[in-house]
Specification:
Layout: E1 2-4, E2 8-9, E3 12-14, H1 18-23, E4 28-31, E5 35-39, E6 41-43, E7 46-53, E8 56-63, E9 69-71, H2 72-77, E10 82-90, E11 95-108, E12 111-121, E13 135-138, H3 139-142, E14 146-150, E15 155-159, E16 172-178, E17 184-190, E18 193-199, E19 207-210, E20 222-227, E21 230-232, E22 235-236, E23 240-252, E24 255-265, E25 269-270, H4 272-275, E26 278-283, E27 288-293, E28 301-303, E29 306-311, E30 314-321, E31 333-337, E32 340-341, H5 347-355, E33 364-371, E34 374-381, E35 383-385
Parallel strand pairs: 1-28, 2-21, 8-13, 9-12, 18-25, 19-24
Antiparallel strand pairs: 3-10, 4-12, 5-15, 6-7, 7-8, 9-13, 10-11, 11-12, 14-15, 14-26, 16-17, 16-27, 17-18, 17-23, 19-25, 20-23, 20-30, 21-22, 23-24, 26-27, 28-35, 29-30, 31-32, 31-33, 33-34
């Protein structure tokens, strides 16, 4: 089910120089056994793994849409040497200059990575800090092995030899190309257009295409939206108009998928709302992704018609469906939902409600907002759109 009450999380892509491309080729990996099982925690539509660096355990996001990243804290604790600086661009087109360095060793269960090129960044900015992430195990690191991922069983397996994974029942085969940091890009046909989608395990949503690829003449059902519907590594993008629609067909690899739910935005991505119905294998040697369906949950869009983000521990409406009669406006400060006080939160409780939304299990909510100094009360029903 597509959830429009919280924002979708996307991490970042990078503008790479020739020097940077070589940087992400560095490193080596050692396995104790032919196939190694790796701890995985799939929570809040994101995959996390525990890694050991210099005898200390850290929480890393397993993110194919980004390179490997470490926090400023790890960089300082290990007293690592700066290799160079380069501009980094996140999914919302925000840019910052970041340090690039090399991590001498990282252990993930029984998998030992050495001399991996990494980017250094602050993980305490915006909503990102709520997930207490210390780093990202990214595509340049993943590319050194074959990976089999099953979110349903909190399972990752990895090997140096693809023959250790039986591909017999993997009915969907998707070729991909890679960006400089090894991020896989797949080609999908949506609305009769071939669109490059980043295969992104750091994206909590389903399918997203850039505004330029949207053609209203080819869409039977759509919901028009306005605001900010996703957050990247350096914060949220600017409020913009957008659309959520049903694509009658999506061709991906050797398969055609019917009635796919797609949203528009600043990036083209395929993410965890899609992946979680499959076991999938990522193969950088042959540049292919193999997928075996384990669930059949047709996508549907249920929403109260708005989304919100927390700014300085205050929930603010950041995204709305542009429909007649919706009383919630962009910029409304949410004081309470179903008597839960959201106006006097500390940082910890704001993070709790950011991740565990008050309204997620309700069909009807009573919401109190503040707008232009006035306090307003509304009762809202959750609706299913694009039926």
């Amino acid at each position: 089910m597509q959830k429009i009450s919280q924002l979708f999380l996307i991490f970042f892509t990078i503008l790479i120089s020739a020097q940077g491309k070589r940087f992400f080729e560095d490193g080596e990996v050692q396995l104790k056994n032919p196939v190694e099982k790796v701890n995985l925690t799939y929570a809040s539509d994101l995959p996390f793994v525990k890694v050991n660096i210099n005898g200390k355990i850290y929480n890393f996001l397993f993110d194919s849409g980004a390179p490997t990243v470490i926090s400023n804290t790890i960089y300082s604790e290990l007293n690592l040497e700066k290799k160079h600086k380069s501009k980094v661009k996140n999914s919302q087109k925000n840019k910052q200059e970041q340090i690039f360095t090399q991590l001498p060793e990282m252990t993930v269960d029984n998998v030992i990575f050495k001399n991996i090129g990494v980017v250094v960044m602050d993980f305490n900015s915006s909503e990102l800090g709520c997930f207490k992430i210390d780093g990202i195990l990214g595509a340049n690191q993943m590319a050194k092995l074959f990976w089999r991922i099953n979110y349903s069983e909190n399972s990752i397996e990895t090997t140096k030899d693809l023959a250790n994974f039986d591909l017999k029942d993997y009915e969907t085969v998707i070729p991909f190309e890679t960006k400089a940091q090894k991020t896989p890009t797949v080609i999908a046909t949506i609305l009769n257009k071939k669109i490059d989608l980043t295969f992104d395990t750091g994206f909590t949503g389903r399918l997203k295409i850039t505004d330029s690829n949207y053609d209203p003449k080819k869409v039977k059902q759509t919901v028009e939206t306005y605001g900010t519907n996703s957050v990247g590594a350096f914060g949220a993008g600017k409020p913009v108009s957008g659309y959520i629609f049903i694509a009658d067909e999506m061709v991906l690899g050797n398969k055609t998928f019917q009635n796919e739910l797609v949203m528009t935005g600043s990036s083209s991505l395929i993410g965890n709302e899609f992946f979680k119905d499959f076991i999938f294998i990522m193969d950088w040697k042959n540049n292919k992704i193999y997928m075996k369906r384990i669930k059949n949950n047709p996508p549907k869009l249920e929403s109260f018609g708005f989304g919100y983000r927390f700014v300085d521990a205050k929930p603010l409406v950041a995204f709305v469906f542009k429909e007649n009669g919706l009383p919630i406006h962009i910029g409304d400060s949410i004081l309470s939902i179903n008597t839960v006080d959201l106006d006097h939160l500390n940082e910890e409780s704001a993070c709790n409600y950011m991740i565990n939304r008050v309204e997620k299990d309700y069909k009807t909510i009573e919401i109190k907002v503040k707008r232009d100094g006035k306090i307003l009360d509304f009762k809202l029903d959750k609706s299913e759109y694009l039926k």
